[in-house]
Design a protein that fits this description.
single chain, alpha+beta, four-stranded antiparallel sheet, two-stranded antiparallel sheet, 2 helices
């Protein structure tokens, strides 16, 4: 089994970099949730974050519904033009946390080991 460098995880999924021996391959992020895996660049991960936010805004009409977290499935667009995901509102919020948490950790690492170095 290949080694990984974990970026972020929650109860719904995980984001990580693949490793080749001891070298971390940081050009792309592997995002895995709901038996689905995406291999995104940081730019694509940011696009996905925007698409998630758009989906939350479009489906805000369910805010007062007691069953909003589990009853309906919404189409969530991805940076892959040919792929949309059917997710519940609860799943959508979990994916949002996974993507935003991953982007935060990536940006923090870039700052600490890049611009923040003295």
């Amino acid at each position: 089994m290949r080694e990984i460098e974990q970026i972020y995880y929650n109860n719904f999924g995980i984001a990580f970099y693949w490793k080749n021996g001891k070298e971390v391959i940081s050009e792309k992020i592997q995002l895995v949730f709901k038996e689905t895996g995406f291999y995104f660049t940081v730019e694509e991960l940011n696009q996905f974050c925007d698409l998630i936010e758009n989906s939350l805004i479009e489906n805000a009409c369910c805010e007062s519904c007691e069953l909003k977290n589990s009853c309906h499935k919404f189409l969530l667009k991805t940076p892959c033009a040919a792929i949309d995901l059917a997710v519940s509102m609860k799943e959508l919020k979990s994916i949002k946390d996974l993507v935003e948490g991953s982007l935060f950790k990536i940006e923090l690492e870039e700052y600490v080991y890049g611009a923040g170095l003295n």
